Amino acid sequence: MTVILWASLPLLRALVQLPPMLTAAIAMLAAAVVALGLERWRAPDQRPEPDKSAGFWLMGVGGLTGALYFYFLALDEGDPAKVTLVTYTWPVGFMLVADRLAGRGLRIETLLGALVAFSGLAPLILNDSESVSTPPLAYAAGLAAGLSWIVFSLYLKTGSPSRPTNYKRLFGGVAATALCLHLLLEPAAEQSTARDWLMASLIGIGPYGIAFMTWGFALQRCSTTLLGLMTYLVPVLSSLFVVVMGWAPLSNSLLVAVTAVFISGAITQASLPRPRFAHEPSNAASQPSDTLPPIPMPAMPPLGVLSWARRRMPSKQRVPEGVRAQNGA
């Protein structure tokens, strides 16, 4: 669902004639309303508590706001196809960082699968290149957008089913920050219609609201390697939607991209141990851990806040104080 909703974003964004950060502010406000409505359905003891930590503002609000702002900046400064290709290096970085934090180290299969997916995706994205001069600022902004996505995804992964993310406050914080950036850096919208506001709200309900929440849900329960590769389906499905709408013909680059993404998934998943069935004995050593264990680890530049992410992960079973005292005696 997450990938499909993200893939629909370009179609909805093309129907909005508003400044980028104003669109983001409206969309995130709508996403906050959706999160509030879903929270009402939860039992009182299952509702998320307010997160007042620095990580909430730096990795959550800051990461998502940075991803939106830097990506729009890159699109304004250079060739959209080229900066999008730079931005889509973030799944590779996310998979490598997640593997490192989970104690798996550097997996050759992850690198090979990501390389296959990225290589297949490059012709599809560059096929729409407008041959516009792209200065270093545009590439830097695209890279910053990708790094921001990594930080935001790591923040979502630090949650747990027993401690759900407070999406209401998260989306509200991003909406307020995006509105401030619009007022400071963008010209006012000269002409805005009800359709513009409706389309921006639909972006907040789907590609920004529900998609971000399902992305966080998947990060806490699924393999980060597989999820990282699935994100490469976003531009593939976006191009497929354009073909279905009759706005562009079916191209060979689209078929190559689809094939490459599925091959990369087979490469990375073939080396992982198969799931254990209920009647089989458990063997924890053979199962890859996809959580972030609370083991001291030096910060990895430029993501110095990763040490904070590790501290927020649920720690392993602790020895009770009484038992510890008896053992010490």
Automatic annotation (TrEMBL):
| Protein's cellular compartments | Membrane
GO CC terms of this entry: membrane
* Residues annotated as transmembrane: 24-42, 54-74, 80-98, 110-126, 138-156, 168-185, 197-219, 226-248, 254-272
Alphabetized InterPro entries for the sequence: AA-Vitamin_Transporters (IPR050638), EamA_dom (IPR000620), EmrE-like (IPR037185)
| Protein's UniProt keywords contain Transmembrane | yes
Q: What is its main location?
A: membrane
Whether NAD counts among this entry's keywords is no
As for membrane topology, the entry says: Multi-pass membrane protein
Organism domain of life: Bacteria
The EamA domain is annotated at: 3-122, 137-264
Keywords attached to this Swiss-Prot or TrEMBL record, sorted alphabetically, are: Membrane, Transmembrane, Transmembrane helix
**What protein family is recorded?**
Belongs to the EamA transporter family.
Its protein name is: EamA domain-containing protein
Name the species this protein comes from: Halomonas halmophila
